[in-house]
Amino acid sequence: MMGAGPVPIPDAVAKANTVVINHLGDTMARVIHQVKTMARYVFQTRSNWVLGVAGPGSAAMEMAISNLAWPGTRVLSIVNGFFSQRMAEMAGRVGAEVTTLDVADRQIASLEAVAQAIERTRPAVVTIVHGETSNTVWNRELKEIVQLAKAAGALVVVDAVCTLSTMPLEMDAWGIDVVITGGQKGLSSIPGVSLIAFSDAAWERVRTRTAPNTHWCLDAILAENFWHNAGYHYTAPVSGVLALHEALRLVCTETLEKRFARHLRCSLALQSGVSALGLALYTPQTCRLNSVVGIGLPEGVTAREVCNHISQQYQVEIAGSFGLPIVRIGQMGEQCREHNLFRTVHALGRTMSDLGVKVDLPAGVAALEESLSAGSREARR
Ligand SMILES: *Cc1c(COP(=O)(O)O)cnc(C)c1O
C-alpha cells in the first residue's frame, strides 16, 4: 500500500480497531480525553477546541467550512489543485460568496498575489491546503500566507490531511484558526475517523453565529457535547476512535521531531531512487511535497497501465492522480520504512521496463541505498 492513502496501519492500530466499547461510559470518556490531549500535541496547539469527526477527511473539511461560513460570508480559497478546490466547492454550497485564487499546476501562490486577493475580497475566511496531494505541491509559505490573512482579520482554515505528523505544522505559532486531518494518511490510522481543531477566535465565531449549521452531524456545537461533555450527539465510531487513539499514541511515543526526520529521510531517498531510475519528479524542488511523491509518466504509458501492472506483477499499490500525467507514491506514516522503499523502487523500475520504458534499475536501487545510508550516518553523528 504505497499509494496516496489509505496507508498501512501498525498492528496496535489494527488491534484497537477490533474492540467495541460503550460509547458513553467512563472508559470512552478517558479515551476521548487522551485523544484530545495527544491531538493537541500533534496539531501543536493549546486550544481546547479539538474534536473528532465520524467521517473522511472531507467531513472534517466540511465541518470547518459549514461552521464558519454561511450565506453571504466572504471566503477566499487558495486553489492549488483537486483538494483545495474542494474547500471552495463546499463554501459555495453553504451559500458563501467564494472567490478563488487559482494557482497554476506545480506552483505556489506568490505572497503578492495572496495579499492582493485578500485586499480585493476582504474575506472573513481563507482556505488553503498545506500539502496538495493531487499534484504533490507543498505550500511552503503557509506560515507567511496565514500571517497576511490574519493581519486582514480573516480566519484561516488549513487542510493538513496528508501533512499532519509528516511535515512540521504549528497551529498556534503560525496563527492558524482551523486545522483538519483524516485518519488514513499521515497518522497511519484507519479511514473514516478524522480530527479537527478550532482556535479560540474560530470557536467564538462558531459559538456566536445566529443561524444554526444546516449540517446537523457536523454542527461543532452539538459535537462538543460528545467531545467535551461526555454527552450524546451521535453514536461515535468507537472502534475507529480507539484505532485513532493508538495511532496518536504511536506518534507521541516516536515524537514529532523524529517522525518528521524519518519522513524527510525516506522521502528524499525515494526521490533520489526514482530520479536515478531515469524518471522525472513532477513538482519542482522548491515546492515539492515530501508526503506524496509525484512522478511524471514517460511517453507511451498511462497511469492506469503502470498502477495495474505494479499491483498485479509486484503486489505494490501506487496511485494515479485524477487525470494528471503522473503516478504517485505515498510517504506517510508506515509507508516510510526502508523495506517498503526498496520494494517500491524495485517494483517501479521493473514495471517500467516490463512496459517498454528504458530505466536504470541498479542505479535507482543504488541511489536509494546511498541516500538512506548517508542519512543514517548523518543521524548517528
Ligand atoms: C485525501 C485528502 C483529502 C480527502 O480526504 P478523504 O478522507 O478522502 O475525504 C483532503 N485533502 C487532502 C490534502 C488529502 O490528501
From TrEMBL:
<dbReference type="Pfam" id="PF00266">
    <property type="entry name" value="Aminotran_5"/>
</dbReference>
<dbReference type="InterPro" id="IPR015421">
    <property type="entry name" value="PyrdxlP-dep_Trfase_major"/>
</dbReference>
<dbReference type="InterPro" id="IPR000192">
    <property type="entry name" value="Aminotrans_V_dom"/>
</dbReference>
<dbReference type="InterPro" id="IPR024169">
    <property type="entry name" value="SP_NH2Trfase/AEP_transaminase"/>
</dbReference>
<dbReference type="InterPro" id="IPR020578">
    <property type="entry name" value="Aminotrans_V_PyrdxlP_BS"/>
</dbReference>
<dbReference type="InterPro" id="IPR015424">
    <property type="entry name" value="PyrdxlP-dep_Trfase"/>
</dbReference>
<keyword id="KW-0032">Aminotransferase</keyword>
<feature type="domain" description="Aminotransferase class V">
    <location>
        <begin position="21"/>
        <end position="318"/>
    </location>
</feature>
<keyword id="KW-0663">Pyridoxal phosphate</keyword>
<keyword id="KW-0808">Transferase</keyword>
<protein>
    <submittedName>
        <fullName>Alanine--glyoxylate aminotransferase family protein</fullName>
    </submittedName>
</protein>
<dbReference type="InterPro" id="IPR015422">
    <property type="entry name" value="PyrdxlP-dep_Trfase_small"/>
</dbReference>
<comment type="similarity">
    <text>Belongs to the class-V pyridoxal-phosphate-dependent aminotransferase family.</text>
</comment>
<dbReference type="GO" id="GO:0008483">
    <property type="term" value="F:transaminase activity"/>
</dbReference>
